[in-house]
Amino acid sequence: MSGHRPESSWGSWNSREPTTVREEEAFELGENGNLQDNLPKKSAMKYRDGSSIDWLHEEALERERDYVKKSQKSIRSLLSIWADSVRVWLVVATTGFGIGVAGAWLDVLVKWLGDLREGRCQEGFFYNQVTCCSGLDPGEFCTDWQTWSEYFNVRRIFAQSLLQSSIYVTLAVVFASSAALLVNTYAPYAFHTGIPEIKAILGGYVFDAFLTPWTLLIKAFGLALAVASGLSLGKEGPLVHVACCMAYMLSRFFDQFKHNEAQKRKILAAAAAAGVSVAFGSPLGGVIFCLEELDTFALESDVMWRGFVASAIAAVSLQYIDPFGTSKLVLFQVTSGGDTWRAFELIPWLSLGVIGGVLGSLLIKLNVEIALYRKSSVLNEYPILEVATVSAITAAIAYLVVFTRVQSSELVANLFQECDPARGDYHGLCNPTAMWENVFLLLISAAIKLALTAWTFGMMVPAGIFLPTIAIGACIGRAVGMLTQSMQTTYPKAWLFLSCPPDPIVRCVSPGFYSVIGASAMLGGVTRMTVSLVVILFELTGALSHVLPIMVGVMTAKWVGDALGKDGIYNVWIAMRQYPFIPPVDFNDKGRTAADAMKPFGTLVKIQEGQSTIKDLENLISIHGFHGFPVVRGRDLVGYATRDKLVSFIELHLSSDTSNKICRFSLSKPQHSSVDNDIDLTSCLENSVLHLRKEVPQALVVRMFQKMNLHQILFTHQGQLDGMLTKPDVVALLTAHFPHTGALSSR
Amino acid sequence: MSGHRPESSWGSWNSREPTTVREEEAFELGENGNLQDNLPKKSAMKYRDGSSIDWLHEEALERERDYVKKSQKSIRSLLSIWADSVRVWLVVATTGFGIGVAGAWLDVLVKWLGDLREGRCQEGFFYNQVTCCSGLDPGEFCTDWQTWSEYFNVRRIFAQSLLQSSIYVTLAVVFASSAALLVNTYAPYAFHTGIPEIKAILGGYVFDAFLTPWTLLIKAFGLALAVASGLSLGKEGPLVHVACCMAYMLSRFFDQFKHNEAQKRKILAAAAAAGVSVAFGSPLGGVIFCLEELDTFALESDVMWRGFVASAIAAVSLQYIDPFGTSKLVLFQVTSGGDTWRAFELIPWLSLGVIGGVLGSLLIKLNVEIALYRKSSVLNEYPILEVATVSAITAAIAYLVVFTRVQSSELVANLFQECDPARGDYHGLCNPTAMWENVFLLLISAAIKLALTAWTFGMMVPAGIFLPTIAIGACIGRAVGMLTQSMQTTYPKAWLFLSCPPDPIVRCVSPGFYSVIGASAMLGGVTRMTVSLVVILFELTGALSHVLPIMVGVMTAKWVGDALGKDGIYNVWIAMRQYPFIPPVDFNDKGRTAADAMKPFGTLVKIQEGQSTIKDLENLISIHGFHGFPVVRGRDLVGYATRDKLVSFIELHLSSDTSNKICRFSLSKPQHSSVDNDIDLTSCLENSVLHLRKEVPQALVVRMFQKMNLHQILFTHQGQLDGMLTKPDVVALLTAHFPHTGALSSR
């Protein structure tokens, strides 16, 4: 256990974070001379934590392995090929099943902990309120569930509410602090949502410490505590992290994944899809999320199939376990208000889109500022105290406003429902006489939640941003819906509302559905996703006729949001932590070419053909931590020698006899033909290195890195090396517009 | 109109087909000296029909255009950027709406024509049977609909059936022949499914004749006739073609798409998604189909969003028009039999998967053999006669067997339903005493449909393969389901069936659902798609619990099918017609490197730096039709000059003064410094050309072509050109395993 246990203070944890881009760049530029400890020792440990994998190289290895097996036409090799495939599916299916079960277990735990803040079950301490009161006839009063004041037999109203509220707040603080304590002490990587890191890892970032079983355990358990504490956070993103941890753990059992970073990432992508599938009860949403947000476009197409299988198994497992006996898969079922909508409704919908875009950008900006403040202020020293304070404030405020007192998921579920006399009233929402009060309360709740979320997302607890964002959007959407409805019922004869049915009893405007659109728009503004959001919300609502309005909301929010700031919240965090992730965006190079971005010939660390001895090479390798070195003769490019090939060559050949031999990388004979003194290193040259002319537009170079997951490109002209561009350079290009790049990475 | 009108015989049409890969290869190798007519005249007409576009180049143009607009900070340029985006969405939305309407209109037309084969409506000739008999009370007999024997007042049973059957067969022949006549006379490219061509076009193939308004009209109308004739074909694939024709037609109104082949293809991809969405009532299925089968993975990620918007609009339009008043979007609603399934059912499901894989491969093989036979035999001369004969045979056989007499879509809809006494019996399927007869009839129907489909798919009519495949699979699945059910009811106490409920009245095995799995497996075997099939069938059935069995069926069928032959039916046709399409498959290079596949230095047509005059260049260009020429000095690579840049340069500079000047592509001064006699052509060099070493594994080269949509790669070593590889070479590599490559392409 001690192996997983980092220092217990926030400050010292930060300093243990893996090397991030800027540092790697500095490192690659050779400014740091004392890195021998970090260098990969053997080919088994090819990548340092914090570096990026070389996809082309990894995939070539995989192909080679496949080819060797397929060319041996023995039964044994056939079985081995078959076993490889079985292992992949075993890991995929088990992960799917595992995350389905974990999701269900988490739901039960959260519900019980959450209810515990208000009372307890007489029948059994471990029953939540719903289970406790199940099996009653309609109209019968539930006596098994006791509020704390009933339990402690407090009769006076004032004492009752004092007791109830203090237990509510106290338990919230206890839960939140325990979560923070667990995370801070045992698994610091379990804090936050995890999506930015997963994105970076799937893109090739090496960060194994992020996926340990210990992180899995703390993240899952801490998440339950954090959600139950009523902090303004959701379980969706962290569930994706949990799913990836599971897949990583399972994949460690098989050498096939352990030794190939590309294979491992393909499994992780499937696991991420399963995580989303469980989080939202949306198996197709999971697949599309992976494609769009995690950018597994760049991976092979069979990744999509694996992701779909994992998603479906996860969703079926969740449905089969059915934690609450509702046999509903989705978080919040939407009762379809009416399938038709009218032209005038475009106005409120577009407004919701604009509001979502503006508030989404605001939330991102606030969140960034708070994160920067946290890092630079005294808060950095006391992460657990911060969590405790914020949870106390959250609980105290939440207790005051009716809409914030219930758990976010419950609130959202109710906001998404239409008012229906047969189904009862939710928190007084459906009382037509209290319309203005309700609108006011909804807007206040949205504002409170916005501020709390901006602070909470980034504290030392597992925290997803999806649910709070949905809640904010749902409150605003409902308010706009209610306003529209009231206008329509007040002025039914206005020309705008003439398309409504004349019968006043028939509902024309459905505030519940406006709530869904508000949530979509807010999500669009915060995450800047499009297809996956609509698919997830489509699977939530199920009605095809709702898709177009949701699209309108999401699209408007994205446009408005993009005008106010280019990146979604995950990409902002990636930039702040400076992970080497290349987002799949269109890069506007403003007419610049690769020549402006590349490291020019002069600054590169090169191997001079026919001048270095083996000893020199060994020296070079130990001084510079680069993934590879261009080999040149004068200015002519001979090739690109990768570090791992050089290391293994030197290990094989280094002896007192050879250490002074001159290295040759080229077959063509040199000027002076002292053959005895030469040693042939052509085998160390990498074959899969791209050459381009330096006049290529930057946009094309970026696109190549995006599509091919490249590690470097060399720029040559008529055989002469002009410069080189590596992944960190491209990342720097793409994050140049963001002012706080690297602000949260450790240095 | 005459411009669209090709010669009216099949033979002469074939000779007018666009140049296909092998020809282009020969052409690019310079064996054909008389191609001046085909050469692009101006930069406006960059690509010949039959060539492949250069994606990198097109995208660079688009970026440049964008950059120019964005750098002019005037209101006008801002408006122009905004207008570009509006135009894209206008085309996407209009296409979605258009194909939704067209799909609905097609349904109505097909239903009416189909019913016309059996009788007519007294109320109005243009009502189909359902519309004619609508509005009746339950139990009331429909008198408005008259069979032909009633209409002609024929009373004797024998005469009645003779009359009915002869009208049935005659009308079928008339419909089918009219479709064939229309296609053959006016729009030969409207035959077949269209999916292979769309795949090739989206991949970069230039084939504008395939997308003309004339083709659109004939394809849509011919499709209705062909489907109504009862031929064994479906409307799904052709609808995708129709959607693409619509998008193409709409995009012609805007220069933005007309002058950029990449932009045009992005719009077509969205249209294809909308086509699938309407064909199956499955908007998400449409998007995934585009990603998986049409391989738009390689395009930008905003293509997915456009595709989704088009899909959703199309589906909503279709639902809104609601041609049959059922307000059902899907072709065949599945009544969910029961949500639970038992372990023993894995045995019949796996069997169905195996059957699907085997029969799918058989269908592909048969179809290929028949297509080859058609091409080489006398049938080639009489395409309309062939269609008439096959439709007569189809109708005659179909009339005999109860399951084949109804239209395939109706049959499938009924096979997918569970037997339910309240809903009536379909074709006697639910009569438990006739179980063996039904199983026999189902298997016979499947066999007949298999043979007829293999023949029909490739005749001179618009024809999709989806629906017939579903019908075959549904028949077999139902048969297997009925057998399993009968075993279970006969031996309820066998240990295999112990998991079934003991009450014999409760249904344990649901034959209707087996039918769905059979259809999935058969589709998997024929098309080799995975995710999109499952998504389409998932959207059809709606029940999440059904997803896993469907996955099992599709996956097994794909494995078995892949073992029997690597390609799905669309890829087989692409190979036979030799379109330059690079499928997104994993290529097993068996350890070979690019050196084995490239055209070596010696065989390339090159420009020798400092030796050619402008006149020489002009000559070179007019002799060879290549997209570009490597420029070399001796063996050293100077660059790659594209044809269109050379052409426009020469047009500008060719005069009696300059025609004898020596061309220089390199800035470094030559040996002899006669500056006056030189002309600088460095601007003709293409910047976005990739260089690799020739030792690169072929698999990596293929992957680069797949991911980056490349047109060519140059292979260099230490500045020397070793060879070149172009798209047709890669296509040849990938289709090398298929024996009939190019068998149907014209030569």
UniProtKB/TrEMBL annotation, chains A, B:
Read off the Gene3D superfamilies from this record.
Answer: CBS-domain, Clc chloride channel
Q: Where is this region: Disordered?
A: 1-41
Reply yes or no: does the keyword Kinase apply. no
**How does the record say this protein sits in the membrane?**
Multi-pass membrane protein
Q: Which GO terms describe its cellular component?
A: early endosome; Golgi apparatus; plasma membrane
- UniProt GO MF annotations: voltage-gated chloride channel activity
Residue ranges of the TM segments: 88-110, 165-191, 211-231, 238-255, 267-291, 346-364, 384-402, 439-458, 465-484, 504-526, 533-555
Keyword entries, A-Z: Chloride, Ion transport, Membrane, Transmembrane, Transmembrane helix, Transport
Q: Which residues form the signal peptide?
A: none
SUPFAM superfamilies xref list = CBS-domain pair, Clc chloride channel
Residue spans of biased composition, Polar residues class? 9-18
The protein here is known as: Cl-channel protein
Organism (species): Lentinula aciculospora
